[in-house]
Design goal:
By secondary structure, the chain is α+β, with helices and mostly antiparallel strands. About 35% of the residues lie in helices and about 25% in strands. The chain has five helices and nine strands; from the N terminus they run H-H-E-H-E-E-E-E-E-H-E-E-E-H. Strand 3 and strand 4 form a beta hairpin. The radius of gyration is 25 Å and the shape is elongated.
């Protein structure tokens, strides 16, 4: 009986503390979860040496090309003695599933399982920001979920047609065709960001060791 009373008292004492911590006490963010699972996680952005800008942009492009198709880029330039920021952005790509082990855009675990069960796409943007003889290497991988107007395997439409001769005033709406299906933003893919960051950090370290 005493042990039961002690548990009740302890629960009432800890409950206000849990409320003060907010939802993060019970449901940490995805970034915190990644860091908790991966003790070798590195900061994003990271600082890398300011070496040959052409080599740096080529290294970033070569790394991103392993996961996505490059859409556009702005190369590092020197304008009036000032080094400008360089960045590379990719096209969106449907996430690889467990049936596509040769593709690398979905990391194994939750991300690949999610892409197997849902239609998910990702795209990335990497920035090289010059700062006092170094670069800030910033990697962002964004994730989106497909937003369908109706279930893909539905047997009826969202607005069933009538066959009793009543005038359908919204018939013209059926002629409207959506050129693109929508996508719901789902934040960022921190696991893939960590993978790209670590690979690029190793490339920069190796390049500095060769010089």
């Amino acid at each position: 009986m005493r042990s039961t009373s002690a548990i009740v008292i302890l629960t009432f004492c800890l409950f206000p503390l849990a409320l003060s911590c907010g939802c993060r006490a019970f449901w940490p963010s995805e970034e915190d979860a990644i860091k908790a699972l991966d003790r070798d996680a590195i900061e994003n952005p990271i600082i890398v040496p300011m070496i040959d800008p052409d080599w740096a942009m080529a290294a970033v492009s070569d790394e991103l090309d392993d996961y996505f198709r490059i859409a556009r880029e702005e190369r590092i330039r020197v304008v009036d003695g000032v080094i400008t920021e360089g960045w590379i952005e990719t096209h969106p790509k449907i996430g690889s599933t467990y049936l596509e082990p040769w593709r690398r855009d979905s990391t194994f675990g939750f991300e690949r399982a999610h892409a197997t069960l849902q239609t998910v796409r990702r795209w990335a943007k990497v920035r090289l920001i010059p700062s006092q003889g170094t670069y800030f290497l910033d990697v962002k991988v964004y994730k989106e979920l497909e937003d369908l107007p109706d279930p893909e395997s539905a047997n009826i439409t969202a607005r069933p047609m009538r066959f009793d001769g009543t005038l359908d005033r919204n018939k013209d709406d059926l002629l409207v065709v959506q050129p693109n299906r929508g996508w719901i933003p789902m934040g960022r893919d921190f696991s893939l960001e960590q993978k790209i960051l670590k690979n690029l950090a190793a490339r920069f370290k190796e390049k500095c060791g060769d010089q």
